[in-house]
Specification:
The complex is a heterodimer of chains A (286) and B (218). With 286 residues, chain A is mainly beta. Chain A has 2 helices and 24 strands. In chain A, strand 4 and strand 5 form a beta hairpin. The radius of gyration of chain A is 18 Å and the shape is globular. Chain B has 218 residues and is α+β, with helices and mostly antiparallel strands. A 4-stranded mixed sheet of chain B has the order 2-1-3-4, sandwiched between helices. In chain B, strand 1, helix 1 and strand 2 form a beta-alpha-beta unit. The radius of gyration of chain B is 18 Å and the shape is globular. Chain B starts with 15 loop residues before the first strand and ends with a helix. In chain B, 39% of the residues are buried. Classes of the chains: A mainly beta (286), B alpha+beta (218). The interface between A and B is medium-sized, with 14 and 18 residues.
Chain lengths: 286, 218
């Protein structure tokens, strides 16, 4: 299936990345870019890489220079090989298990795994019922660490962060009646991951997403800029303006807001050999 | 001039230091990086102790029972260092590494620290020996080309105890928190990494491999 065709069906709005210059302050203001995906509108396809088999939905292909968002359901696999991507990445585990032997890190849903650009992770194993979103600010490619040349591009100071729903306490959300929140990756760690449990028709105004933010519906439904979305649908927003508030559906919604930091500006696919190989690898896989 | 490109002759030698503990399996497989650097670059890597479990008595202590963690570690080692992992034995108790630190100081003074520390790792991780035992350390000394009898005397008289204690304190004072930690010139590398990462860090600081530097000099 053509990736672009699959993606176009799910994307409803792309304002573009025009720049607005304020001459007096000599500042650059990035207009808001927004992408909305309802998983019901995106078809599934089968894929495989290095003997790993999976089902995949291409939520956002990133082909227009925008974000890349993929949903994977890996078949149980004892060893997903060590690899890295050329952009920062959130992995959001929605179902099943992901076990990383190095730090005896056992991810159980809902879990967030964040890695900076060019930071290898794995190997890891996946268990029954696996379901996850892989979220990049731009196309990230796929680089196996078996590639010795690629190892030269590892970002040594890169961060790997993990947060799990079951390990955090709910807190009342200040200023939002009936809303509870949980910091999976708390403010101060750079990238942030905040879960919100919201009552029916609740309206959430999230802050300016300077480096980009994925807003994912974990359960229930939500309306993004007039478009209703069911779990695990999402909106990606980036820019120096506030996006329209999120309106939760009639049965309420659980949301998770995944905010990138400066690392989202680094890396990405270029014209070099590594980028070409990384882009080809992900295309072959999905 | 050595292989440090564009560096005045008066520049201090390029530092390559590994902070490690013999009882850490990641240090065992990470020791190979020091051997590779010594082979490929004009550097003399220094092994420095970072004492992970000072609470362990000389006779050793039982491991906290964590089968899953042990299995996970073994899996990771198998993936990242398959050849070494195939020969590795996971010890059945937590061993005391301090006497081996003293012995490493002895080896350091005789310019044999790298082969000696490698021999100690092999004794523990391949042969399953207790590195708190004098006989084990003397065997390692002999393999590294050291005088085993002389080392035995130094250990019995605790000649290097204070130096080893100071080295452990210096590691903590330097902010080392985990093993292995490598210092390559101005860059710290925490944890196990691919050798290509080390090569990149070396070359970014102007250190060229012997082959390239001799070509340039020639």
């Amino acid at each position: 299936m053509d990736i672009q065709a699959a993606t176009t069906g799910g994307r409803t709005c792309a304002v573009g990345d025009r720049l607005s210059l304020c001459a007096r302050e000599i500042s650059v203001k990035l207009l808001l870019r927004q992408y909305i995906v309802d998983p019901r509108e995106v078809s599934w396809k089968s894929g495989q890489t290095e003997g790993i088999t999976f089902q995949c939905q291409v939520f956002l292909s990133g082909a227009d220079g925008g974000p890349e968002a993929l949903r994977f359901r890996f078949d149980p696999c004892p060893r997903v090989y060590a690899h890295m991507h050329l952009t920062s990445q959130f992995q959001l585990l929605l179902g099943g298990t992901m076990d990383f032997p190095k730090a005896t890190m056992k991810l159980r849903p809902v879990a967030v795994h964040y890695a900076d650009h060019n930071l290898p992770y794995g190997p890891f194993s996946t268990g029954e019922g696996h379901d996850m979103l892989v979220l990049h600010p731009r196309q990230g490619g796929l680089v196996t660490m078996a590639d010795r040349t690629a190892r030269r591009q590892i970002y040594l100071a890169g961060r790997q962060l993990v947060g799990m729903d079951r390990e955090r306490e709910w807190l009342p959300a200040a200023g939002l009646e009936g809303v509870r929140c949980k910091f999976l990756l708390p403010p101060g760690s750079g990238p942030q991951a905040i879960m919100l449990e919201c009552p029916c028709n609740c309206v959430i105004a999230a802050p300016v997403p300077t480096f980009g933010r994925y807003e994912v519906v974990l359960s229930g439904s939500a309306v993004f800029s007039g478009k209703p979305v069911e779990a695990p649908g999402l909106r990606y927003v980036a820019g120096d303006e506030e996006p329209t508030p999120i309106r939760c559906g009639p049965a309420g919604a659980s949301l998770i807001l995944l905010s990138f930091d400066e690392d989202a500006m680094a890396g990405g696919l270029g014209d070099d050999q590594l980028s070409r190989s990384a882009a080809e690898a992900i295309e072959r896989a999905i | 001039m050595a292989n440090q490109a564009d560096t005045p002759q008066s520049a201090p030698p390029f530092r390559v230091i590994m902070f490690a503990d013999f009882i850490c399996p990641y240090c065992y497989i990470g020791q190979e990086r020091m051997e590779q650097l010594a082979r490929d670059y004009d550097v003399q890597p220094i092994w420095r102790p970072h004492w992970l479990h000072p609470e362990t008595p000389p006779e050793g202590a039982p491991f906290p029972h964590n089968v899953e963690r042990a299995r996970a570690t073994a899996e990771w080692l198998k993936e990242m260092a398959p050849e070494k992992a195939a020969c590795m034995r996971l010890p059945n108790k937590m061993q005391c590494s301090f006497f081996a630190f003293e012995a490493a100081e002895f080896a350091h003074d005789r310019g044999r620290a790298l082969p000696f520390t490698s021999a100690v790792y092999d004794a523990l991780w391949v042969e399953g020996k207790d590195i708190a035992r004098m006989a084990t350390l003397q065997e390692a000394a002999a393999r590294a080309g050291l005088d085993a009898e002389e080392m035995g005397r130094a250990l019995r008289e605790r000649t290097y105890m204070e130096r080893a204690m100071n080295a452990v304190a210096a590691s903590r004072a330097a902010g080392i928190r985990s093993t292995p930690t490598y210092i390559l010139g101005r860059t710290a590398i925490k944890g196990w990494h691919y050798y290509e990462v080390f090569q990149t860090v070396m070359e970014k600081q102007g250190m060229l491999p012997r082959t390239q530097s001799s070509t340039r000099r020639g």
